[in-house]
Structures are given as structure tokens and as C-alpha cells.
Amino acid sequence: MTDLRNYLSVIKKNGELKTVKKQVSTKYEIAGITAKVDGTHAVLFENIKESRFSLVANLVGTRKRFALAVKSPEDKIHQTVIKAIKNAKKPQVVYSGKFLENKSKDLTVLPIVTHFEKESGPFITSSIVYVKNPDTGKQNSSFHRMMPIDKTHFSIRMVEGRHLHRCFMDAKEHGQDLKVAITIGVHPAVSIAGAYQADWGKDEINIANSLLSGKLTLTKLPFTGLGVPSGAEIVMEGKILCDKTHPEWMVEMLQTYDHRRLQPVFEMEHLFFRNNPIFHDVLSGFSEHRLLMGMPIESKLNGDLKKAFPQTRQVSMTNGGCNWLHAVVQIKKKAESDPKKIIKKTFESHRSLKQVTVVDEDIDPNDAEAVEYAMATRFQADRDLVILSKVRGSSLDPSSDQKKLQTAKMGIDATRSLSKRPEGFEIAKIPKIDQIKLKSYFN
After folding, report:
1. What are the helix (H) ranges across 100-259?
2. Helices 338-349 & 287-308, crossing angle to 10 degrees?
3. pLDDT tens-place string over residues 144-155
4. pLDDT tens digits, residue range 415-425?
5. Does 112 fall in a domain?
């Protein structure tokens, strides 16, 4: 099975899903509960005050649930994702989709959540947008948050230069609206693929199909002709208007408010949903948002760096860096020049990165204290620091020049010097310490 309901049954069996039967509100209450359980369980809300839909949050809020989504052992996530990217396979198209069970013209039936006090409104935060590439004719799928304006219109957030924006600008230059389809409530493997930034002309849905063992099916929609996952809970289709914008601002991955933007407007033609539909909400800036966006990039970095530098052991996008701005690269150092070459390649592979720290094999890149220890004992600022000024960075970083999209970047070589005696850097160990059980020594 390749739908959200199948995934929920899997995580329920694994003790990873909690159900809330008490009535809750979409205004702050659902967001507050999700924040409180952040990093522990997924949450299914069955009784929502403003809607007859159910709602699920925190689906892939831990690496364990992320691994369950891509059907992988937790320590093999990146190998699994990289293999799926290399072996992406087009899904079959079927004539019927479960989402065709119900139809509406009114988006207010959806349980759209108001998350934070100073956001411009409630947002759909899990919406995946499907569009036809004007150059290749193939589809593209990507995440875009949407704010309701009235019963048939949303503002839609697009990052300049990304694939949907390029398609939109192409249509706009021809004086045309852009036909798109949107899904809410899909198997997380589809979401994970949608969060991956594939090359122009590549269809991320093919990666999702590979993650789901080639069992994903698509259903074509009547207005747009686009194919969306047949098991999707909620589907909208319509067009992004070429001549209208609407103001909005939202909380981003860093848990900070983005600046006010004028964004294009989506006009809905059809809204479809399954019987007993389940809406998916992603709490911006919390664990699911960060892992959903950051883990596919972490997989990409692991693939790129291991290919270019076989001495690379592991790349981690750190929690402290919001799984987006900071990376730690663990290597088996062969030459003194290795770290700085690897720093350069890491920045090239993910341009939003602001800091890259390179550590030795004996330092766990996921342990912030161990990484700081490496900096304290193996790093000299006048020799091992790389600083890049006025370079392209993340538009999310409030400390950067967000208009010019420029930032400063820092690379840190926190590896042992090969010219010094290795014993001076060896972390002392106590033999057989793992065999000692403290309970047997204390009453």
C-alpha cells in the first residue's frame, strides 16, 4: 500500500502514533499540542471543532519515522534515498483515484491550521504542487505553503528560481495562467521526494515510486490533465493567476517570521477528497518540517561528497543549524588539504549552508558536544578557518542580506594535524567500560 493510511497503520504498530479524541481547535490548539509532542510521536486528531476532517501531524518528526517512511533501517536512510534517486521509476497511471469519492467548491471545509500569533493567517503547510515542465513536458512536484483568501483562492509561496516559479514565469511571459494540481495527505515517501530538489526536467514523483517499491499509482485530473497519487486524501486543481498577488508572511524553518511578501494567487477549480479524509499539517520550524526538508538534502550531500571524496564517512545537517544551515562532515583524513577541499564542495552542493565543520572519524557528527570538543582540541582559527563573504545563501536567514540573497559563510577544519604526534589527539578509553553495569554496584 502506498497511501497515508497505510503509513499510519505502520507507525501505530510501532507505537509511534498517538490519537487525540477530545475536540480541538484549528486556531493555535492543534499547533500547541504538536509542538508539545515534537520529536516524540505522530498525532492523529479525530475531533476538530471547525471541520469534519481528521488531521495528522508530526508524521516524520524523528529519524525513526523517517526511516519507516522510506522503508529503510535507520542507519541506511541515505543509501536508500540515494538508490531511489538513481533508480527513479515512472509510476503507472490508473483511471480511478480514491480522492474522487467526494467533490466540493468550498475550501473552508478543510481544517486549515492557524499556527503562530503573528502570521498573516492560517496556512496549508503540507501541500505538494504538481505542474508540467514547459521545456520537457514532464511533471514536477514540490512543497509550497498556501494561505486561504476566500472560498476559492489561496496565496501560494514560491521561491524565486525554483522549478514551480520558473514554470510560473514562463506562463506569465506568455500571458497565461499556470495550471497546477495540489495534494494534501499522501504517503510520506511522496512528501520526502517532493522536498528533494531534483534537476530541472526531472520528476520527483518517480523517486517516490522507487521508495515505494514501484507500487505508486497516479490518477489524471479532469481540469489540468496532471497525474497525482491515487491514494491522496485531498486533491485540488486549478490555476495560478498570472496577474494577481496577495500579501502574506509566515514562520520559516528557523522558527522566525519571514518578511512580508506579495505572492501569486491560486484559483481553485475543483476540490476532491476521500471518505473520512485525513488532512496533514506540518508545524513550521519544528522537527517534522526540518527533517522533511533537511534529510533529502543530507542524503544528497552524503552522495555528492562520498563520490567526490571517498574519505568521507558521514555528513550530518545539524539540529542546531535547523537541519538546513549547518553541516558536519566526518572524514578519514589523508592529506592536510582534504578538509578545505571538502568544505568547498559541501558549500557547492547545498548553497543555503552557512557553516561547514569537518571532523575526524573518532568524532560523532551528530553529537554537538563531540563536535565542539574537536574544535576545542584540533582547530586553530588563524590556520583552519575559511571565510566567504557576500556569497549566495539562504533567504530564510534573518541575519543575511535577504534582498540580495547574500551571506557570509564559515568553514572549520576541526581535524587532527597530520604533522603532529597522533597520541596527542587520541581520546583516552577505559577497557571493558561497556561491560560495567552500575546497578550491580549500588543498592
Report:
1. 163-173, 188-195, 204-211
2. 130
3. 999 999 999 999
4. 999 999 888 99
5. yes
